[in-house]
Give the backbone structure.
Amino acid sequence: MEMQPEGYAIDKQYPDIIYVPRDVQFDLRAQTITWSAEGAERKIKLLAGKIYIRPSGYRVQMEKPAANRSWRLIGTVAEPTFCHKPSTVSGGGKSEISKPITDAHHSRPGLRR
């Protein structure tokens, strides 16, 4: 990543990924991201097509959903799940482990971490 004087960083391999400090505030209405550093307020523009990642790995991006709805901030936190299915005899449900986990995705408005 390439550090910027304002206190954030841009990924060198994927320039659409922006690494922001821990204490950032996202303002969709003003389209800004703000934080304090060295006693001063720092600010960058919140842009569509960019992915902002906090040190915890929490990812925020601005998206416009289908059906011409208004822009919104989408936050994603990675929560791993360990999945173990022991080998069993015939009829033990081994095929269940190979099914997609798309039903395991949860979406809630206002989820904060």
Observations:
- The chain has one domain: 2-102.
- The beta strands are 2-3, 9-10, 17-19, 25-27, 32-37, 40-45, 51-53, 59-63, 72-76.
- The CA atoms of residues 21 and 89 lie 51 Å apart.
- The first strand starts at residue 2 and ends at 3.
